Amino acid sequence: MAMVSEFLGQLTLSHGGGEEPKFPTVVPVRDFDPAKDAARIDTAIKTKGVDEQTIIDILTRRSCDQRREIAFEYERVAKKDLNTALKGALSGPLEALMLGLMKSTTQYDASELKASMKGLGTDEETLIEIVCSRSNEELLEIKRVYKDLFKKELDKDVAGDTSGDFAKLLLALVQTKRDEPSNVIDYEKIDEDARSLYEAGVKRKGTDVATWISIMSQRSVPHLQKVFERYKSYSPYDMKESIRKEVKGDLEKSFFTLVECFENRQLYFANRLSEAMKSKGAKEKVVTRIMVSRCEVDLMKIRTEFKRQHRRSLYQTIAEHTKGDYQKALLSLCGGDD
Ligand SMILES: [Ca+2]
C-alpha cells in the first residue's frame, strides 16, 4: 500500500502549473497497456543475451509517467525493481541512458548535479550546463527534488564544491531570484542595465563581477535580450565578446552559457550536441544528458535549430557518430529525421 501512495505522489509531482510550452519528441503512447509492456520487458530481460531492441522500443517511446507505470507493473509481477533489473541486463552508455529515462526530467537533472559534485573534484562542465541553462522554473523544481532525493540543499552542495566568483554566480542562479517576464517594456531600465554592464566590464580596469552577476541572475530573459541589444550602443564588443575579454575559466564559461541560453536556449543545446558528437570518442555523457533531459521538454525545437545551424539533421549526425544499441536508443528519442 505504501508503494501505491508513493507512486501516485510521484505522478502528481511531475505536473507543474503555468510552465513554458513544451516541444517534446517523446509523448504519451495511445492505447497504453503498462501490464503488457512490463511483461514484454520482463521477457526481454530474461532472454539469453538480452533483447535490447524490445527494451529500447518500449522505454524510449513512452512518456515519463507511462514509464513509471510500467516500472510499477514490472515490480508487481517480477517482484523486483525495474531499475535493478535494467542495471543487470544492460551496460555501458545504453544502461546510463535507460536508467536516466526511468527518472523524471527534474529528478534526472538533480541526480546529474549531485553526480557532478560527488567525491573528489567537480565536473564543472556538467554543473555549468545545468545551472546556467535551466529556466528559473526548472531550477526551482530541481532544488525541491534535490532536497527530496538527497536530503541536502542544492546551494549548500554548490557552495561546498566551488569557489570565488564562479561560486557566487552559480549560487546567485540557484537562489532563483529572476524576475518574471513583464508585459511592460521598461526602456529606462534596459538602458540603465546595458550601461551598468558596460561600466562594470569593458569600460573599466578589471571587472566588477558582482554587478554582472546581479543583473544576469535577477532580470527576466526578455528584458536581458533587450539589454544585450542596447549594450552594443555602449560597447564596441557585444556581450559575448565582452565576456571573453573580461573573465576567464569557469566564470567565463558560465557567463557565456547564460548569455547563449538567454539568446536561444535550443540553439545552445543543438551546438553542444554537435560539439559533443564531433569530439573524439563522442562525449557520450553530454549527448545522453541532453537527449534524456530535453526529450520531453524541447528536443523538437533543438532538432530544428540543429538542422538550421549545422545543415545536417540531428538524426543523421547521431547515426554517423554513435553506434550499436546506444545509437538505436538515441535515434528513437530523437524521434525522426528533418
Ligand atoms: Ca574591464
TrEMBL record:
Pfam families: Annexin. Keywords: Annexin, Basement membrane, Calcium, Calcium/phospholipid-binding, Extracellular matrix, Phosphoprotein, Repeat, Secreted. Its main location: secreted. GO terms for cellular component: basement membrane; cytoplasm; nucleus; plasma membrane; vesicle membrane. It is found in: Secreted, Extracellular space, Extracellular matrix, Basement membrane. The keyword Signal does not apply. SMART domains: ANX. The keyword Cytoplasm does not apply. GO terms for molecular function: calcium ion binding; calcium-dependent phospholipid binding; cytoskeletal protein binding; phosphatidylserine binding; phospholipase inhibitor activity. InterPro entries: Annexin, Annexin_repeat, Annexin_repeat_CS, Annexin_sf, ANX2. A pair of annexin repeats may form one binding site for calcium and phospholipid. Belongs to the annexin family. This is Annexin. It comes from Scophthalmus maximus.
